[in-house]
Amino acid sequence: MKSGALKMSWARQYMPVLGEIRKRFEADKPLSGTKIAMALHVEAKTAVLVETLAAGGAEVYITGCNPLSTQDDVAEALNDVSGVHCYAKRACSVEDYYEAIDKVLDVNPTVTIDDGMDLIHRLHTERRDLLDSIVGGCEETTTGIHRLRSMAAEGKLEFPVLAVNDTPMKRHFDNIHGTGESALSAVMITTNSLIGGKWFVVAGYGYCGRGLAKMAHGLGAKVIVTEIDPRRALEAHMDGYHVMTMDEAAKIGDIFVTTTGNTSIIGEKQFKNLKNGAILSNAGHFNVEIDIEWLESHKEGFEQRDGIDTYIINGKRINVLAEGRLVNLAVPKGMGHPIEVMDLSFGLQALCSEYIKNEGSALSGGVYDVPNEIDVAVASLKLKSLNVSIDALTEEQKLYMNSWDIGT
Question: Which residues are NAD(+)-binding (predicted)?
């Protein structure tokens, strides 16, 4: 068995939720007649989702959503799966990246699955002739949801998209535990640097940021949180972290991870104040949070080791991981989120794809919440796989919770 197929086999054994969904999909073929266009991180867990969709009767066309996150052996293995066509390649140019997106769209798809919204953006700009055939889509990540909501607010999103990222089963597991563990482990394996005792700076205290802060604190780091939202800043303070501006954090931080989804979080002003040997990385979707362009324009440096570019600024070394791209997948040994976490997220994607296929034509353009029953179904399947039982409301309790006239 080739390496890509071996990776998929390893992931599959730890993805019981998708396994249960696949059994039903294989029997009922609920996605028959559906062409699914996907732009996701092409690695082993994603491949198991793709297999599941194909087992449900879909024709699946997939490419990457980040130039450095594709695992080429997995992409090769996907092309051996019946009903699947994969165009992703690692370390591709920007031109090749969008050429692959166009190949996915050339098949005239009916459903989209995006991670970052590049596929949907392409449809609404360069490939508008295909919009009429799209029933709807699903979006995987925070950055993509931000872009979609901005688009919808301007009335320019022309088909319905489920905000998979915003549902509790995604935020509380994928974003907190997935990003927290995988981003931290990517920093550790790439740098071989000790976490304990270091000043560890987390930019942004959303779901991803709080997961990362928690994991770093657990390893003994002195965690600093930077924020723009006073409520989240106060929450970080009450959770026991040091809260300050990025300007202040730049002077004392040893390791930095950005998780904001916004641009220019660490730039020229901070670069000039960083300590010698500071390590910078990004856990947001796009490579805009660290101003790599400024560093390149003032470059006096070299590739320190695999996945680390070192820049000399004011005589001090600044070490940037994965070119400022998504650190948990873009570093050479990055494996992305833990398998069990992605089992939940991709269970959501599989069921949301089925929902969009059946209900999308009745919905107008816009961003929609994942139906609560889908979120609950994924949680229930996971509990079943763990042999964990929970209580159920009695009829008396249901009556009480739905009444307004039962008081003291």
Answer: 141-143, 206-211, 227, 283-285, 328, 337
Asked if residue 207 belongs to a known ligand binding site, the reply is yes
Mean pLDDT of the chain: 96
* 142 among annotated binding-site residues: yes
3-state secondary structure 228-256: CCHHHHHHHHHCCCEECCHHHHHHHCCEE
* Confidence grade of residue 408 (pLDDT, cut at 50, 70, 90): low
In sequence order, what are the residues at sequence separation of 6 or more whose Cβ sits closer than 8 angstroms to the Cβ of residue 269? 247, 250
Per-residue pLDDT tens digits for 37-59: 999 999 999 999 999 999 999 99
Domain range spanning residue 166? 3-170+337-385
Q: State whether residue 111 is helix, strand or coil.
A: strand
210 is in an annotated binding site: yes
Domain containing 237 — which CATH number?
A: 3.40.50.720
User: Is 283 flagged in the annotation as binding?
Assistant: yes
- In the 3-class helix/strand/coil scheme, how is 49-77 assigned residue by residue? HHHHHHHCCCEEEEECCCCCCCCHHHHHH
The per-residue pLDDT for 407 is 73
285 known member of a binding site: yes
204 is in an annotated binding site: no
